[in-house]
Amino acid sequence: MIITSCGNSEAIAKKIATKLKAKYSPLTISSFPDGDIYLKFNTNLKGKKVVIVQSFQPHSDMSLFDIVFAAETAKSLGARKVILVAPYLAYMRQDKRFHEGECISSRVMAKLLNNSIDKLITIDPHIHRYKSLKDIFTIPVTKLTANMLIADYIQKHFKDNIIIGPDWESYQWAETIAKHIHIAATVLKKTRFSSRHVKVKMIKQVPIKDKNVIIVDDIISTGHTIAEATKAARKMGAQSVTAIGVHGLFVENALGKLKKAGVTRIITTNCIEHITNKIDITSLLVQELKKEKR
Ligand code: R5P
Description:
By secondary structure, the chain is of the alpha/beta class. The protein has helices spanning 10-20, 60-76, 105-116, 147-157, 168-180, 224-235, 254-261, 282-293; strands at 2-4, 23-24, 28-31, 37-40, 49-53, 81-86, 119-123, 141-144, 161-165, 185-194, 197-202, 212-220, 240-248, 265-269, 277-279.
């Protein structure tokens, strides 16, 4: 088995290789003067299983392009199987045509991956209107979850908590985590007016005064969702607000926005490498990849 990366998840790729006692061989990726991609494998792939570890952030478009080029090259160099480990899978939020003429990006992304890789392993993909990843993928797909790692982290580090899901989609994470550690959870109703404008409202009233509120969401992108949920929790008398995201994209000064809204702490998993990473998901991937070594 050869472990490689297109640049976004190198730290995790190296850790996986060490744990699996597999070879880590980085790709050479650069550009020709005109901007065309240049990509090169630096080890013999004949008959090998090649694992590309690459989250789709930063630069989701470039990541997709790099993955497709790397996978096609691996196959043409004789790889037996190409597995993509994408801790964060982008494009999943565009799962329908919200406005006439729009591209359903998740379907296009899946079509490209169906063509070029043999298997996908991902963590907590944003599944909202699809029933499962099988709705768009024809290749074998394994969906892992960081829920239990997040639950353990909360149990170890916080007391007197309540968990809030800032919208219905996030409640699948918030509720499972809360149940596991026997604490209360509630969900807010989110109305999204645009990519950068959301409003939230509490439907099921729960006592928040003097509690340590933990807001759990799958994705923190511009930070608007968590910022609005934080303002609501603060108004209701929360003592502290911790934001936990599986995938911390943090675009457009999201961190500044969250602090301004009154977030006390921001914690993410290392599905996307970021200074807020506190929860390591490598063990989930190692466990799954062990099955490929048999
Ligand atoms: C959407 O439904 C997701 O679960 C997140 O709530 C959303 O992607 C967060 O985006 P932002 O940080 O830009 O509000």
